[in-house]
Amino acid sequence: MKLIQLAIMIAAVLSGIRVSNATNEGTYFYIGVVIALVVAVWMYWAKRSARAANRQS
Questions:
Q1: Who's near 36: CB < 8 A, 6+ residues apart?
Q2: Which of 22, 28, 44, 52 is packed most tightly, with the most Cβ within 10 A?
Q3: Where are the transmembrane segments (predicted)?
Q4: How far is residue 46's CA from residue 15's CA, in Å, rounded to a whole number?
Q5: Alpha-carbon distances, residue 20 vs 17, 25, 35, 40 (angstroms)
Q6: What does pTM read for this prediction?
Q7: DSSP string of 1-57?
Q8: Would you say the C-alpha torsion 47, 48, 53, 56 has a positive or negative sign?
């Protein structure tokens, strides 16, 4: 759960940078979205691997 909170904080910080830096409109927002997606997929994969390991044992 802490990783999800960290990802939300990172995305919020990057979104804040995007708002304060209008010249690079969108760039930081997209970076934040990519980071959030990568973390979400990684968390899903970790849960799936844990379930598979639990089944085998």
A1: 7, 8, 10, 11
A2: 28
A3: 28-46
A4: 27
A5: 5, 9, 20, 26
A6: 0.45
A7: -HHHHHHHHHHHHHHHHHHH-GGGTTHHHHHHHHHHHHHHHHHHHHHHHHHHHHHH-
A8: positive
Q: What is the pLDDT of residues 1-30, one digit of tens each?
A: 688 888 777 777 766 665 555 556 566 667
The position carrying tokens 């940078």 is 17
What residue has token string 């909170």? Answer: 5
* CA–CA separation, 42 and 19 (whole Å): 28
Token pair, residue 41, equals: 């997929």
